[in-house]
Amino acid sequence: MTTPAAARRIALRLAYEGTRYSGWQMQPGRTTVQGTLAAAIREVSGEDVVPKGASRTDAGVHALDQVAAFTSLSGHSAEVWVRALNAKLPADVSVREGRDVAAEFDPVAAALGKRYRYRIHDAPWRPVIDRHVVWRWRGRLDDERMREAAPALVGEHDFTSFETTPSTRVSKVRTIHALEIVRPSLASDAPGSEVWIEVEGNGFLYNMVRIIAGSLIMVGAGRRSPQWLGEALAARSRPAAGPTAPPHGLMLAAIDLDDSWPA
Q1: What pLDDT shows up at residue 167?
Q2: What's the chain's average pLDDT?
Q3: Domain-embedded: residue 261
Q4: What is the CATH number of the domain that holds 47?
Q5: CB-based contacts of 10: which residues, under 8 Å, 6+ apart?
Q6: Is the pTM of this model over 0.85?
Q7: Beta-bridge partners for 181
Q8: What is the secondary structure of 112-150 as a DSSP string?
Q9: Do 47 and 86 contact (CB within 8 A), yes or no?
Q10: Which of 43, 123, 159, 229 sits a CA distance of 20 to 30 A from 199?
Q11: How many domains does the chain have?
């Protein structure tokens, strides 16, 4: 008589291009990253499980470091899961790493902080190679003005002005640990052709990073003063802030996990 395999909790770090997905979370009749990963798990082990993700990225948003976890009775080690899933997943989703974790591991609870990156292409030419992952802005942005404005949002604040309404969130208080504006030398088509907005915090409201990006772009484009960003925050009213930047420029860049993620 064969002894059944013990349940194993597997945690994965994933990367994906969100262009053709209706976000992370499974939805009836929609192609989602969570649903695509669940289908790959089913192909590998025959199990119908729903992997839990640390962040519910929206439609069109990308990820370099999504964290997901699921429980399997297959007996496969984490290393086997990585190889097997990458053989089944489409080209726009990849498992970067897999770990065996404790049965109670919860990627949402384990996430101490998240880092998002918003990419704006503002060179005189339009982007080609990375056109699906940057927002094309026609006109050179003043990134120094954007840097001058950014510190107003760092720290613990009520971010009501930076959440899409209506909202069911009771508390609008969140903490931004860092908000950086950079022109990276590693932009794909030429150094300095992009502005990156890097936001790190303990949690984010719905569309918060995209509204921060849209507001900073208003400053960089000279349509608002650097001081206006702090005024928009203090107003605690969505119309006080700038537009919601489109989803395809946004990327979940990193998730900082607690000690439940094995070293």
Answers
A1: 79
A2: 93
A3: no
A4: 3.30.70.580
A5: 69, 70, 71, 72, 76, 78, 81, 98, 99, 100, 101
A6: yes
A7: 197
A8: EEEEEEEEEE-SSSPPSTTTTTSEE-SS---HHHHHHHG
A9: no
A10: 123
A11: 2
pLDDT in tens, 109-134: 999 999 999 999 999 998 888 999 99
Q: Do 42 and 138 form a contact (C-beta atoms < 8 A)?
A: no
**Whole-number Cα distances in Å, 241 to 134, 217, 218, 245:** 22, 11, 10, 12
**155-170 burial by CB neighbour count: b if 16+ within 10 A, else e?**
eebebbbbbeeeeeee
Q: Alpha carbon of 119 to those of 53, 129, 136, 142: distances in Å?
A: 23, 14, 9, 15
* Residue 214 φ/ψ, nearest 5 degrees: -60, -35
Q: How far apart are CA 76 and CA 72, in angstroms?
A: 8
Looking at the fold, whether 147 and 231 belong to one and the same domain comes out as: yes
From the candidates 58, 92, 106, 189, which is the catalytic residue?
Answer: 58
256 is catalytic: no
Range of the domain at 63: 8-105
ω before 166 within 30° of 0 (cis)?
A: yes
**Tokens read off for 40:** 């790959």
Amino acid identity of residue 38, one-letter, is A
Alpha helices, DSSP H, located in the chain: 33-45, 78-88, 107-110, 143-149, 208-220, 228-235
pLDDT tens-digit profile of 222-250? 999 999 999 999 999 999 999 999 999 99
User: Which tokens hold the place of 188?
Assistant: 């794909």
- What token pair was written down for 213? 């990006």
Name beta bridge partners: 157: 174
Nearest CA to 152 out of 210, 223, 235 is that of 235
Query: Do residues 116 and 241 share a domain?
Result: yes
Task: Extract the tokens encoding 230.
Answer: 């702090």
- How many whole angstroms separate alpha carbon 145 and alpha carbon 206? 26
Cβ-based neighbour number of residue 185 at 10 Å: 8
